[in-house]
Amino acid sequence: MKNPTRCDTAYDMMDLSIDIAWERHGIQHRERYFADHMNCWRDIFPGSVLEAMMTAAPGQTIVQSIAPGQIIPDYRQDKVLTLPRSRLNNFSSPGVPAPGRFYPQGMISGLPGVFRDNLIPFRCIGVNQDRTTIDLNHPMAGIPMEVTMTVQTRYPGSGERGGSCTDWMDLALTGPGMQSRHERVPTDFSREHRFHRKDARPDPVFYETDRFVHHIDQTARKNLSKLYATLIRPGDAVLDLMASWESHLPEELDGSMVHGIGLNGNELEQNPKLTSHGVQDLNVDPILLFDDHTFDTVVCSLSVEYLTDPVAIFNEVARVLKPGGTFALSFSNRWFPEKAVNVWAELHEFERMGLVLEYFLESNRYAALSTISLRGFPRPEHDNYSSTLRLSDPLYAVMGKTRR
Questions:
Q1: pTM of the model
Q2: Measured between alpha carbons, how far apart are the two ends of the chain, in Å?
């Protein structure tokens, strides 16, 4: 279908990338949401920031600075409540709810208009023996942000007016903000046996079986490779932690040294990006056998959820990175449930970025911390799950640079 150079009708469809950037407590955050086949007539509401895209041509970018209260309701102090613990359902374990954590509002009894199946999050910000302080504000309330919108593709309108509406900005802003601390106070991710796992066998036993399978779909793999391409330059020395048969690194790595550490030698042998590799169980032996300041970049793809002593690894990575070198950890919403640490499955996807940020902050060896999420991209039609899952696997990444 031929694309027009400019939209002259309100009935066009478009593929639109929505980038939302903000800063919180010195940490940079970015959400990229792909609005796939957005319907201009149905989905762009009067007064929406998306109105600026109505007549935008393919490839055109518009940037808007968004003040608090412009897209989502501004922060309100009257939405901070202190309630008896008896008003909170399903919290029988000691230490729960935990300060800084998010939980579904449906767990609170007696809130007007809130029913038990309500999944909108609230944040626990204080706990004592018999009372809990909760924050019902949106996680992004009170935070200024910059929204960058780019038309990827434009499709001539069909005149269609029926169907349901999609609030794309609401989708893009559902989750962001949950990775941040509350008022710089460390989020309490601790719980009894949080680093225990369902399968307590030694990791080499679990990983001795060859698994030459993709752990995320093709679109997500391409997105991850593009992300790594912004961090790694040709000629860089790269360490791929917890590696397997694919590293998701960009193709343009001429002259780069890439060393992989994993648990399955056959998979490492088949990884075309690795120039060298070694088998090592980081949960038993976290010491990296390299000199200080060896690598420009260290990546850990789709595996941070399996670390049982993550801060030890973060400290070792800081040692082997060059000053100003980057440690980037990426993950999705798919993992081996037997080997993921207990706390991982309990968290909202955006809270998992907060957990990894806590690893960085607890290590205290890194600066320039940042997060990025990539969601909403269409799943490839040939994908095995395309008939049941319309969207590509989401990607989340947390990055930091060693202090100079």
A1: 0.94
A2: 52
User: Side chain identity at 135, as an amino acid letter?
Assistant: D
Residue 151 CB burial class (10 angstroms; 0-12, 13-18, ≥19): buried
pLDDT digits (tens, 9 = 90+) for 336-365: 999 999 999 999 999 999 999 999 999 999
Ramachandran area for residue 227 (φ above 0: left; ψ -120 to 50: alpha; else beta): alpha
Range from 7-11, 35-39, 195-199, 356-360 carrying the lowest mean pLDDT: 7-11
Residues listed for the chain: 404
Q: Are 13 and 157 in contact (CB under 8 A)?
A: yes
**Contact by Cβ (8 Å): 380, 219:** yes
Sequence-distant (≥ 6) Cβ neighbours of residue 176 within 8 angstroms: 20, 22, 29, 31, 139, 140, 350, 373
In the chain, DSSP finds a helix count (H) and a strand count (E) of: 8, 15
Contact 394, 227 (CB under 8 A): no
Q: Which helix (H) or strand (E) holds 40?
A: helix 40-43
